[in-house]
Amino acid sequence: MTYTEPTVEQIDEILQKAWKAFHVYRKLPLGSRAEFMRAIATEIEALGDELLKVANEETNLPDPRLRGERTRTIFQLNSYADIAEGGQLLDARIDTGMPDRNPPKPDLRKMLVPLGPIVVYGASNFPFAFSTAGGDVACAFAAGCPVIVKAHSAHRKTGKLVATAIMRAAMKCNMPDGIFANVETSSHDIGKALVQHTHTKAVGFTGSFFGGKALYDWANQRKEPIPVFAEMGSINPVFLMPEKIKESAADVAKLYAGSITQSVGQFCTNPGLLIGVEGEGLQTFIDTLGEEIRKVNPGTMLHPGIFKSYVENRANALAQEEVVTVAVSETEPQLNQGAPTVASASGQAFLNNPVLHREVFGPYSLVVRCKNLNEMLEVVTKLEGQLTATMMATVNDVTRNEDIKEAIKNICGRFIINGVPTGVEVCMSMQHGGPYPATTDSRFTSVGADGIKRFARPLSFQNWADELLPDELKNGNPLGIWRTVNNELTKRPI
Amino acid sequence: MTYTEPTVEQIDEILQKAWKAFHVYRKLPLGSRAEFMRAIATEIEALGDELLKVANEETNLPDPRLRGERTRTIFQLNSYADIAEGGQLLDARIDTGMPDRNPPKPDLRKMLVPLGPIVVYGASNFPFAFSTAGGDVACAFAAGCPVIVKAHSAHRKTGKLVATAIMRAAMKCNMPDGIFANVETSSHDIGKALVQHTHTKAVGFTGSFFGGKALYDWANQRKEPIPVFAEMGSINPVFLMPEKIKESAADVAKLYAGSITQSVGQFCTNPGLLIGVEGEGLQTFIDTLGEEIRKVNPGTMLHPGIFKSYVENRANALAQEEVVTVAVSETEPQLNQGAPTVASASGQAFLNNPVLHREVFGPYSLVVRCKNLNEMLEVVTKLEGQLTATMMATVNDVTRNEDIKEAIKNICGRFIINGVPTGVEVCMSMQHGGPYPATTDSRFTSVGADGIKRFARPLSFQNWADELLPDELKNGNPLGIWRTVNNELTKRPI
């Protein structure tokens, strides 16, 4: 159900309903949760081209991109449903008792149980995959939690359509009233009320640093603090190692021109920082990147607010001391179009100026010219936490620069070699997270089924008779799930 | 190394050293970390009876209790070492690439890596198991993190002795300088400096609500907020169900008299709240419990501060409206001895008075007399988060009161049937945690090897050549660990 500009009293009603729904939904078997998620996927598909049309009007994202994102969203729902139903992510642990030990060893059995109603803030740049039925929502449903989505105001109509799909699926699967709500609000106070309501038990967010940090602070100021997983973006440094750049500066530049400008640079994994060592290779890289960037046409950004920020932040970055503009798209941008831009600065300038460490959300990237590899190492160690980091490197580059490689490992959630950070594969081994300020908790991910664990907690049962235990923990292992029994992973019954 | 009353500058030195040590220690193989932990266990054992003597002088805990706790501490170190070395807790995930897919699917491989230097606050009530080489420290070392212990001021000598054992083990195992530091301080500012130093990456704490909450707030106020796992105690409600109490009120009372008064009630799992339904059975329970409590001798508490708090908090609880003192130990307490005490109040009085929900740390318990099972359900739903909750119940009691059982599940980390909450078994299926205010994050535990995950984060490697990957993620699986390969748990090589 969609609530448009609700009052604080209505927020209370929404959360009261969600709380009631929680106590029904959390008891449903894994299979029912999975069935519900699959039904949502089916209903989204059933919305057909109308959904794409509305989303295109609201976000300016082109049809192929939106089709791809819809496929991804459906895949997230279906694959998280499968994995959750398989039970491995419940982290079931069993230690059988020893009644004859002195003192007797109790029988203990542990599994993850859901936290409660989850508030999810939709992201502007992914109207499907990180919004109303996106990854956070899929994770929360898989964990056993009702969801309240705070719709992103830049694509309310899209959100409302997806919300109808979720509600249809909920009805078809006999889900409890209150399992889902879609809240449209432009009020700061209502957003705060959502996070601070006593029945809200966790928050998922994808967006800006300032937005995420505000939610995090609100959550910590509650009488009962709750976890917030806020993915707040990153500049995704790319390290251009000497041998690699010597061998293929132009190819790397072309690859990166594509990554920087893809979807008008509106990805949290956009490579905003390219770090190399002064020399012929780097110069070729910069020249080629400049040529490529000049050729890329500006694209219309998601909404006027993002466009405005892009223009301001880019201007601010370019106005910094010792920053040189390398190239700007040669095509005159139309209304709300972001012009691809590349700038450059010395390693020292970058080290001395924290402004240059800030994300410029859009098709912008800064090339940092270090005077040598020691300075590159210094740059790595001074960098803040990142979602991703990339080495463009030969095997020699890696083995000769172990210190740089190890320092990079320590600041990122995903470490790429010879590729681009854009493109976040949905699979179990994806980590879409990273040390602060990339996220508020580096121990979790928002992409991949492990994201479910943000919304669940372990519960131990001590000395319960087999027939009173949840199926997941019964001796016979009726669900056939993986469990750690007396320290050994097994599917065997006890 | 032990630092006594260090300055803020020395704290900086300590953390700088720990940070350097981190970059060596995190690269060591799992086996080296395990070897170091086992060496600590050996060195603690080698301290012999001297350690017990010093601990007894400082804590007043009797020799058998201290021997048991030492055994437990050694077991923690050895068993977490074994489990960590086994690799299952790295949550290794591999998704092999599909270069021919359009777009190509990258090869992604994920595992947990350590966070960085961890600050551990020792607990007063467990001078070994939750202190200098206790569970938090074992988890941090197992995760790959250096540790700085803030020694509890009530047992500094004990802490210093254990610290020497750790340093000896570190030397024997060639651990990097800075892998461990023991800080003795009585300064609030120094405690804050430890938590707020830029190189501190997480905090472990066991103690009071006020202590834990202060650390949590300091950590959140940092420029880079860090996770704090604070276990802040609980009143561990016990639900005395009608059929069970009708059948065996006296036996249950005797069992609980033991649990309430064990170690002078100085356990975070001490049952501070017993909830039954008015009637003959509950009266028998109260009478028997009273008789038993009168017979138990007061014991000397850990330190004068804890004794003082016990006396004040108990007096405050007993002074509340409608609270009746049921029984107090008949033996006159000596200096710093806590007298076992049981009081009683009606369900309504409990529901209306938040003071009665507060922990009285020591041998004190409140019996709540509900007028019926509906009121008991209301009491459950009004209770704050708890480390444990217990049902004393027949099978009929459970099946007839599904609503109460389900409501209890929702507020606790460990759910016991027909036992006592005291006694926290060290094993993988233990959950020593629970919803706030029992802890600051219900998604983690401080007992059991899963506690390692508090101090680690996932890192994904994308498209790395086999020889450049960590052993844990190499195709051949040279360490023979469990990994989730293309969604399937296996030890097979790829």
Keywords:
homodimer, 494 residues, alpha/beta, Aldehyde Dehydrogenase, Chain A, domain 1, Aldehyde Dehydrogenase, Chain A, domain 2, 2 domains, 7-stranded mixed beta sheet, 6-stranded parallel beta sheet, 19% strand
Biggest interface found = A-B, 78 and 79 residues
Could you describe the largest sheet of chain A, including whether it forms a barrel? 7 strands, mixed
Oligomer: homodimer
Please list the strands of the largest sheet of chain A in the order they lie side by side. Answer: 12-14-15-10-9-16-17
**Rg of chain A to the nearest angstrom?**
24 Å
Shape of chain A: globular
- Give the CATH superfamily of the largest domain in chain A: Aldehyde Dehydrogenase, Chain A, domain 1
What is the CATH-assigned architecture of the largest domain in chain A?
A: 3-Layer(aba) Sandwich
Approximately what portion of the residues of chain A adopt beta-strand conformation? 15-25%
What can you tell me about this protein's structure?
The structure is a homodimer of 494-residue chains. Chain A is α/β, with parallel strands linked by helices and 494 residues long. In chain A, 41% of the residues lie in helices and 19% in strands. Chain A has helices at residues 8-25, 30-46, 48-59, 63-86, 128-132, 135-143, 156-172, 188-196, 209-221, 242-261, 280-295, 304-318, 347-352, 373-382, 395-400, 402-409; strands spanning 2-4, 93-95, 108-114, 118-121, 147-150, 180-184, 202-206, 228-231, 237-240, 273-277, 299-300, 324-328, 337-338, 341-346, 364-370, 386-392, 412-417, 456-462, 483-485, 488-490. In chain A, the strands form 4 sheets. In chain A, strands 12-14-15-10-9-16-17 form a 7-stranded mixed beta sheet, with helices on both faces. The model of chain A has no long low-confidence stretch (mean pLDDT 97). At the A-B interface, helix 4, strand 2, strand 3, helix 9 and helix 15 of A face helix 4, strand 2, strand 3, helix 9 and helix 15 of B.
